[in-house]
Structures are given as structure tokens and as C-alpha cells.
């Protein structure tokens, strides 16, 4: 099965699909797949690891720069005939503190690119591996939220990360901070986010993912002028599509040959151990 998007692959699906041997995701997110059920039925679940990472990184940084420099507001104002206010100034991106939550391939590359643009980088990750030079580990999420001017989310959606950023976390963030979410929508409590943005606690947010997709056009986030929204397209570049398709195809072909194309892509290695792959 070649999986695009996030259709629910429940235990019932795996029970019915007796001949299924592999689910290959055309991408990286498999939060809609019951991994435990797949493993019980001997079905490998593989992702196209890293194929879309650079595309998502660029999208996240583009949102950061656009919101720091208030480009959406300037765009609207100019179209409406409002020329520049000589007394209004934005802030540089350089020397802002960017907090990265989750340090997989996308989180690490976002951190490196932000650092290359002059930002100070804080990292919150479960990994104990050494960080690149100049980056600072912040073991406590609350402490990272208190220190960061921009918080960028790059963690997978799990039961532990669902609702990870809610009212209590927004209350800890710097007044005027910016939130970027190119991870998964349910990582953020949208009701709390609306309150933080409308109440002035947060300066802005850039969102590529939502709690429900596609979102209701009446979603209150859409009425806020300090929010950039995109329709879950951070990974949608032509180059990323080719890379994802190629890796997904190789994952399938190799598995059916009794091999593993790239063990980093296999999410349930127990199945490989049982099959001898």
C-alpha cells in the first residue's frame, strides 16, 4: 500500500487486509496508522525519511521571516492605499532567539538555517546527542518558551505531544512572541492559540497544519490579521515529490525482495526481525 495523506489505517483495516505486507508512506507522518496493529499482523510501515525535509524547512523559515518583518500587514496596507508610516519599524530577524521543539531531520535543518540567518537557537529534544556548535540545549520546554522570540514546532504527533502547546504554555511565552507550526495541527490547542493571538500575548503565528483538515472556513484563526495560514503544503515542492516517490517505491520494492531499503525508514523493525529481512 502506497499511502498519501492521512487516511485512517486502523486495526480493522489490518485485520481485513490479510495479504498486506507493507505500508509505504509518501512522506513522513504516519499518525493515522495504527502501528501496533500493523506490527501484530506482520506489516512493515515505512516512511520516506528526509525526502521532504528541506522543503518544510524553507517553508518554516519563510513564515518566520514574513512575520518578523510584518509582510502580510504591509501587503494588505499597500493594496489598500496606505503608504509607509515613518514612525513604524519592524525588527531584524538577526539576533532573535528561535526555539526549536523537536530535533529530527526537519528540526535540525530548520535550526541550522535559522542560525545561518543570524538567529540564536535553542533546542528542546529528547535526544542526548551533541548539538551543532553555537546551539543551546534547553531540557525544559517551559524554559525554552520563556526565552524564545520565535517558537517553531517540529515534533511528531503522539499521545505525548497532542495538545503540547496550550494555554499554560502560551502564558509562559514572551509577550510578542511568534509561533510557527509546520508539524501537526493537534500539537497545538487551537482555542488557546486564538485567545493568545487575539489577546495580544502572541504577536503572530504561521500555521501550515490544523487540528481538523481541511479546516472549517469559519475557523476563528482565519479572521485574525496576525496569522499566516497555508493548506498543509510545506512539503509540496516538485523536488520533494520526486524524492518522496522514489524513496517510497524503493521501500516497497526492497521489502518485497526480502530486503530493507533504508532501516531508518522502517518504523516497526520487529517485523523485519521476524521476517529475516
Summary tags:
about 280 residues, Rossmann fold, 2 domains, 3-stranded parallel β-sheet
Characterization of the model:
The structure is a single chain. With 277 residues, the protein is of the alpha/beta class. It has 2 domains: 2-51 and 238-275, 3-Layer(aba) Sandwich (Rossmann fold), CATH 3.40.50.720; 53-229, NAD(P)-binding Rossmann-like Domain (Rossmann fold), CATH 3.40.50. The protein is built from 10 helices and 10 strands. The chain has helices spanning 11-16, 35-40, 53-68, 71-79, 105-116, 141-147, 167-172, 190-198, 238-256, 269-275; strands at 2-3, 22-25, 44-46, 97-101, 120-124, 136-137, 150-153, 177-181, 202-207, 227-229. Strands 6-5-4-7-8-9-10 form a 7-stranded parallel β-sheet, sandwiched between helices. Helix 3 packs across helix 5. The longest helix has 19 residues, at 238-256. The two termini are 18 Å apart. 38% of the residues are buried. The model has no long low-confidence stretch (mean pLDDT 95).
